[in-house]
Specification:
It contains 5 helices and 34 strands. By secondary structure, it is of the alpha/beta class.
Length: 313
């Protein structure tokens, strides 16, 4: 998430009431999670395991809960609770906006686009030309939809990321200030849920088609011309390259990559990154030919045991 203008280190520290290390006028351009940070961004870290990764990332401002040596060319924001203060910044720069109309005045809807009754279109939404938005679709704030997109009834674009920190009193949610981007010629079935990014974008590439009841987690990027069948659940921060096929009830873990033109057969659990151009099946996931051979061999076990028993007799 980029800020509307450049802020200084002193200004941001004042917003969250914390100390800082670095030039008071050090420029800050935005805030992002570590997998999407660029120079000028704030990244937060609150566990020693990830200190080095954050300090060595492309982020130039690190919101951290320990005084450490500041890398050259960077700045630190020292906080007793970086998670809390990252949320403060999200509330400040991307606050929740109440809507009292079905289609916000700030929404832009392209020529030829049809929106059926009982839809909600939030603030700053952009919808391209010649789209069809069926009834009871909810499109949350800041979503961007290209041309010739079809979205079927009951789908929700832009719900919060499923991202929580466990505290003694319960689970504390990391607020979502990102967006959903749907590119041209995408088809989305009924009752799909596509979460917005925490600070970046959840993106569905041009020409991809989603069946009914598909879930796409926060900050996931789906490439061009992918096919995703019903009841598939894609976790957050997944990268799915072009022309991938995921058959029904596939589930993925977070932070993995699925290579271009991979085919994942139904009910497979994608527990790790996989290469493109191959077909996969099973949990744990393996190439389908190998997995099917294993299953065939399992069926032979009773026959083998019977032979062993006869030989012993």
């Amino acid at each position: 998430m980029k800020f509307p203008k450049s802020y200084t280190l002193h200004e941001i520290a004042s917003l969250i009431h914390c100390q800082y290390v670095g030039d008071a006028n050090f420029p800050i351009l935005g805030m992002n999670e570590i997998h999407v940070v660029t120079p000028g961004d704030i990244v937060f870290v609150d566990h020693p395991k990830y200190y080095d990764k954050a300090l060595q990332s492309d982020a130039t401002i690190i919101l951290i809960n320990k005084e450490v040596v500041c890398p050259e060319g960077k700045a630190l924001l020292i906080s007793d609770d970086p998670f809390r203060d990252f949320n403060k910044l999200t509330r400040h720069f991307r606050p929740f906006q109440y809507a009292n109309v079905a289609i916000a005045d700030s929404a832009h809807i392209g020529e030829g686009t049809l929106i059926q009754p009982n839809c909600f279109v939030g603030h700053n939404v952009q919808i391209g030309q010649n789209c069809i938005i069926h009834s009871n679709v909810s499109i949350y704030d800041n979503t961007i939809i290209g041309d010739n997109v079809i979205i079927h009834a009951g789908t929700v674009l832009g719900a919060d990321a499923f991202y929580y920190k466990k505290r003694p009193e319960g689970f504390d949610q990391l607020l979502s200030g990102g967006r959903v981007i749907i590119e041209n010629n995408v088809g989305i079935g009924a009752l799909c849920t596509i979460d917005k990014g925490v600070t970046g974008d959840t993106t569905i590439g041009e020409g991809s088609k989603l069946d009914n009841q598909v879930h796409v987690g926060h900050d996931t990027i789906i490439g061009k011309k992918c096919l995703i069948a019903s009841q598939t659940g894609i976790a957050g921060c997944v990268v799915i390259e072009d022309e991938v096929t995921l058959w029904g009830q596939v589930g993925t873990t977070s932070g993995i990559k699925i290579g271009s033109k991979a085919v994942v057969m139904g009910q497979t659990g994608v527990t790790k990154s996989i290469e493109g151009g191959k077909t996969y099946f099973g949990t744990p996931i393996e190439e389908s030919r190998e997995k099917l051979k294993q299953l065939a061999n399992v069926k032979k076990i009773p026959e083998i045991l019977n032979k062993l028993n006869k030989n012993e007799g």
